[in-house]
Design a protein that fits this description.
- The chain has 17 helices and 20 strands.
- The strands form five sheets. A seven-stranded mixed β-sheet has the order 8-7-16-17-18-15-19. Strands 10-2-1-14-20 form a five-stranded parallel β-sheet, covered by helices on one side.
- A hairpin with a 2-residue loop joins strand 11 and strand 12.
- It is globular, with a radius of gyration of 22 Å.
């Protein structure tokens, strides 16, 4: 039986293990932490449970596909529900907007609460669909670093329609042309945060993202987001995959430009295939020290990071009523701050996830757990202790002002995650959540390939390589590698 080693039990590493086990490989996964999931993990503070990472589940078909390939019923492992309300948006002038999954209801909300029209939102979503139809088979589901991809008939069709993907103006410029109301431009610009980019620099091609959320839907797993990780680990184990926790890989061993295995504490473990789910930067810098380094890729601009306050509140806010909320601000100011500044400004845009509304076991009766996040720069040596103190103060003031509450006195449990901790917990260089940024029209081509061009049988998956960050794209990176390995 051929042997394969996966470095890292993030969602892409687990998915890769499943795909190789189905192909008949003996698979071992080595994870430096005591738990699986990488960013998609969980933790407990007193009586409050928190999902540590992603808070919205899109494109569930990529998870279901893994069970189908294994001949299993996904419902035997986990369940998820579609959200009728995807998000709610709050502005300082007391404008609120509910993004219903139903397009007609959403369009009516927009007409009732902003100066934009039903026609505007429908044209915007139609453009998002067009970009998806042109790009998903080529740019998301196939390697951009193999000649065979470009020889496919569908690739030729996509390239003939390249001008339609809106790659030569920014998201912000495109969104200004779609919407007459500044608030709706802000709504559309925030989709850049899905992959840690700046809408004032990133190409309008990223306007594909609303289609993923609005057309395919937003979902929440029963039991919380970590159930995705737990269900896939269970599937992998049922297929014979072995997980080794608290096992930090020290070296990927190479002989005559071919992978032969790994080393952990001077112990050599042989394998014919090695897949790294570790950030590609640290894969080269720490595990492939003696090999040629792809310097241009390793020096690319990194995506934004996050500052997250996990709060257990001794009160339930029934008027909020759902689990994804944005308190919006001037997005030009926000993204100038993220990508250019090292100080925090007074009124950050706040994203809150309230999973207690959907999973009562996450908080004691009558209480809620809040995942309260702002986008921040990746770590380049900022004083994060000062930053966190200022951010916490400003966030609480903003929420008090918008909700009419005394938040400070309601917080009875608290944990904070900053870019330094994100790097130490997930091996994400500088704490960047999505690897390299997507702030230019060629970003899709500039990401590291899913395989090594110089070392045979070495592969890469996860958010730091093609096709990018987030649960769906990380799963697609595993699919691309799985199709490469026969």
């Amino acid at each position: 039986m051929p042997k394969a080693i996966i470095i890292g039990a993030g969602i892409a590493g687990i998915a890769s293990a499943i795909r190789l086990a189905i192909k008949g490989y003996q698979v071992d996964v080595f994870e430096s932490n005591s738990y699986s999931g990488g960013k998609l993990s969980e933790f407990q503070i007193e009586s409050y449970r928190f999902d540590a990472g992603p808070s919205l589940f899109t494109m569930p078909q990529y998870v279901d596909e893994l069970f189908a390939l294994a001949g299993k019923n996904p419902l035997d492992y986990f369940e998820y529900q579609k959200l009728e309300e995807v998000c709610r948006y709050f502005w300082e002038d007391k404008t609120t907007l509910t993004a219903f999954a139903d397009v007609e209801k959403f369009a009516k909300q927009i007409e009732d609460n902003t100066n934009s029209t039903t026609t505007e939102i429908k044209k915007y979503l139609e453009k998002s669909k067009d970009i998806y139809d042109i790009t998903h088979e080529v740019f998301l589901e196939k390697s951009l670093h193999l000649l065979s991809t470009f020889l496919r008939k569908n690739t030729a069709k996509s390239f003939f329609r390249f001008y339609e993907i809106d790659a030569f103006r920014t998201m912000a410029k495109a969104n200004e042309s779609f919407f007459s109301d500044k608030k709706m431009v802000q709504y559309a610009n925030r989709f850049a945060t899905y992959n840690g980019s700046d809408p004032y620099q990133a190409p309008a091609t990223l306007n594909v993202i609303p289609h993923l959320e609005q057309h395919f839907g937003a979902f929440f797993p029963k039991g919380g987001m970590f159930q995705i990780t737990k269900s896939l680990v269970k599937l992998a184990e049922d297929l014979g995959v072995k997980f080794h926790y608290n096992q930090r890989v020290d070296e990927i061993c190479v002989e005559q430009k071919k992978v032969i295995g790994i080393k952990i504490k001077n112990e050599f473990i042989a394998a014919g295939k090695v897949i790294s789910n570790m950030d590609v930067y640290f894969t080269y810098q720490q595990l492939l020290k003696d090999e040629s380094q792809p310097q241009k890729i390793l020096k690319q601009e990194r995506s934004s990071s996050a500052l997250i306050f996990y709060w257990g509140l001794k009160k339930e806010f029934s008027q909020l009523g759902l689990h994804n909320i944005f308190f919006t601000e001037d997005y030009q100011q926000e993204f100038d701050h993220i990508f250019k500044s090292k100080t925090i400004y007074q009124d950050p845009t706040v994203y809150i996830n309230i999973s207690a509304k959907l999973q009562k076991a996450d908080a004691p009766a009558g209480c809620e757990n809040w995942f309260t996040m702002i986008n921040v720069p990746n770590n380049v040596g900022q004083d994060w202790e000062v930053f966190k103190q200022q951010a916490r103060e400003n966030i609480i003031k903003k929420l008090n002002r918008n909700l009419g509450i005394d938040l400070e006195n309601l917080i009875e449990a608290e944990e904070v995650l900053d870019p330094v901790l994100i790097e130490s917990k997930t091996s994400s260089y500088r704490g960047s959540l999505y690897g390299t940024s997507s702030n230019n029209q060629f970003a899709a081509f500039l990401r590291h390939a899913n395989f090594s061009k110089k070392i045979k049988d070495l592969y890469f998956v996860g958010g730091s390589v093609h096709p990018g960050g987030g649960i769906p794209l990380a799963l697609l990176s595993a699919k691309i590698v799985g199709e490469m390995i026969e």
